[in-house]
Please model this.
Amino acid sequence: SSRLTGRTALVTGASRGMGRATALRLAQEGALVAVHYSTSEEAAEEVVELIEKDGGRAFAVRAELGVAGDVHELFLGLENGLRERTGTTDLDILVNNAGVMGGVKPEDTTPEQFDRLFAVNAKAPFFLIQRALKNMRDGGRIINITSGLTRFANPDEIAYAMTKGAVDQLALHFAKLLGPRNITVNSVAPGITRNGNPVFGIPEAVEQMAQLSAFNRVGEPEDVADVVAFLATDEARWITGSFVDATGGTLLG
Ligand code: NDP
Model:
């Protein structure tokens, strides 16, 4: 289908994992997609090539998030890419997906690790929204990737879960602010989802993780990307400020 023809999208952390799957999915629907990455240049260029081979439109944008000047750098690349291809810098869809995982026991978490987690996972999305609103057309879409860990206890991920708890707040308050512009703001919460982590190469570990889902499998990046893509369409116009559980039933207990 082509429900997003004429729209432009920025997906942060789109070189790998769910961000990659989301970029591919939005492009399939017709959006021009900015594929953001930090270090994985080759992987990001590959995503762009894949999209183009499929008849879609995309370009890569580099910026490390969580450091001074991050948003400025990202938007320089974004606006150049948009201007070249559309003649404007208008943005319709922002997917705040880039994030760093925790995996540190509370007794071992250092203030530096804590600050880094918050800088990348929570502070960057806030300031990306703030900046993106200068470019965003009425009817735009903001989708923030949070985590089932905001509703499911895991003592090895407290600091990480705290960052995602903060991310959840973005939907509530920005949705109220932006309703008059018909911009929707929602959170999507994945459960355990396959990515490049070596743990997904260990069959026994995957089997254990699978049991957390009602469907007895781990999530695939596409499982989450489809949900994000739906929220980006006109069909999702009446959903805003929501926490969308995309954990494959993990929160059912
Ligand atoms: P991956 O670990 O596969 O990829 C992370 C992406 O984010 C990469 O594109 C990476 O860019 C980018 N990124 C990471 N740190 C930075 C940074 N400091 N600045 C800029 N870009 C950065 O991601 P997943 O698909 O596993 O996760 C995506 C989102 O979903 C994250 O927010 C994560 O917290 C959340 N999530 C993941 C779950 C899971 O089980 N996988 C479960 C619940 C939530 P580069 O390749 O250039 O390094």
Notes: The longest strand covers residues 136-145. The mean pLDDT is 98. Residues 111-132 form the longest helix (22 residues).
